[in-house]
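Could you please consider the sequence and fold appended to this message?
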Amino acid sequence: RLARRTRCFSKSVQMHDLIIGLYLNLFCFT
């Protein structure tokens, strides 16, 4: 149960970092 939670949490963090990177690129290019 704990392993599944940490795996899901790490995946959500990865997606969060990806979204932040996209937003940073948008702000830099504009």
